[in-house]
């Protein structure tokens, strides 16, 4: 009779096992997300970045404007947000752009290309000059997806934006639905966090933790 053998069981990480403190029990800190195809196997505690995909935008006057200038084509980048941006003129040529949450993203001048907040466009002056308080809306549509935080990326994944709460998702060849912690207030255990393959230095991890802290996700 041979030596008995015992099978080896590997337990997957428990959902949210990295959480130290969450006073809302996830009611405020967690959201349903989509992990972008190509992200590989993603396990609870993985630090995620976010990218905006399929972005498109349309502009329209907000009310009745004095000026009759026009918008050129609008480009939508990975840093954009879905929702309604506002463009308001200070005078005949200068304007301010706010994102859908009301945060100012930049100043612009008619006839000069504007690029900030994930949007790019040019407003061309018309025969009648703009006046202070003339305004436009820019409605942006698209999908926000997540993948492993990657400090070498340029598509949005270089900014830490969430931590995967779900225990196991394989996004190697298809988008996968999951749940992630996207904001605080909460605390997480650094030793329980996981990092993508392109995170190779402590400095990169420190930078990511600082970005998460700005979202209210503190690490201990």
Structure description:
- Pfam families: HDPD.
- A hairpin with a 2-residue loop joins strand 10 and strand 11.
- The protein is elongated and about 95 Å long.
- The protein is built from one helix and 18 strands.
- It has 220 residues and is mainly beta.
- It has two domains: 108 residues, Virus Head Decoration Protein, Chain: A, CATH 2.40.300.10; 90 residues, no CATH class.
Mean pLDDT across all amino acids:
94
Oligomer classification: single chain
Termini distance? 52 Å
* Overall tally of domains: 2
CATH overall fold name of the largest domain: Virus Head Decoration Protein, Chain: A
Strand content: 35-45%
Main sheet overview = 8 strands, antiparallel
Low-confidence stretches: none
Q: What's the CATH H-level superfamily name of the largest domain?
A: Head decoration protein D
Number of helices: 1
In the CATH hierarchy, what is the class of the largest domain? Mainly Beta
CATH architecture of the largest domain: Beta Barrel
Structural class: mainly beta
| Annotation, overall tally of beta strands | 18
Transmembrane segments: 32-52
Pfam families: HDPD (PF02924)
Keywords: Membrane, Transmembrane, Transmembrane helix
Protein name: Head decoration protein
